[in-house]
Amino acid sequence: MSAQREIVGVQYLRGIAACAVVFDHTSAMAGLDKYFGQSLWGGWLEKGALGVDLFFMISGFIIAIVSLQKDSTAPGVGIAEFARRRAFRILPMMWLAILTYAALRTASGVAFEPLPYLRALAVWPVGDLEPNIIWTLRHEAIFYVLFAATFLSRAWLRPLIALWIAAPFLYVLVTGSSVPDPAVPDIWWSLSHPVNVEFGVGLAFGLIWTRWLHGRSIKIPYLAAIALLYFVAAVAVGNVLDLRADRVADTLITALMFAPLLALAIWGAGPPNRFALLLGNASFAIYLFHVHFISALLRVWSGALPQTQLAVVVITIAGLTIGAGVMIHLMFERPLQSRLSRWWTSRSLTRGQSTSGA
Fewer CB in a 10 Å sphere around the end CB: N or C, the chain? Predict the structure, then answer.
């Protein structure tokens, strides 16, 4: 079975995670006084933020399987090529999302403060970011740098990434707190953030898949539906335990809770669900642009129909936002990725011909 087929289930999880974040932010933002000023279902949907935790685990897995050789876990790609792939995949759409968000906020009368936007554009490791959702890509970038410096460099450096995964526990031991300590420089909080644990669990799954189990699969009917039901149950647990991504004990619990789901997605196989796959493929665009649409739609709806039942508002706006993210993926992200790929291939061929001609 091909690697692409193996990760079909993981694509389902990406779609579920992105949609969960949309429902989380729609519900939370609708509860703001400037919109509808009330909480929906006691804030239950706001634990859709667990989708971010699942994203981190998925990232740890995917980076391992696309960058390492099967059966040996030796580097399968050079550091320069790894960096190029990550840059092409993330930066163009991220920059577009940041710039359009800044334009919309400024047009709506919000004072323009350039520094948070500049930090976001550079995925700067410390400081406030605008839009705030770029905080997840900040930690993705830290993981990419450490992965490249260890797994794609010298084998003896690999324990350093284990130290990074354990860093949140060390931070608690040193400071006595699992939240940022004012006496400790911000960079240490960024490098020791509790979500490191979730990257680590995903990376462990990637190493297991690459080294031993990349050819295995189990037929599971209705894999997408089962994954969704599992995630909904996890959200219920997250509400009961009040799990948060900024507490190391919580991220450990979350990682252990999602580990069976990730395993199911990795090694489960069955007829592909096209809709679930589409959401998975569009998950990055959905995530990057969802705040744009939620803010605009809530502003219009709360002004025009303020007495609408809140559940109708949240479900409708979340659905429209997810649909808008899918359209951005189809109309902009996918063509852009295709053009970048063709340009790089053409450039590489041209350079190769020049070298051979010399």
Answer: C
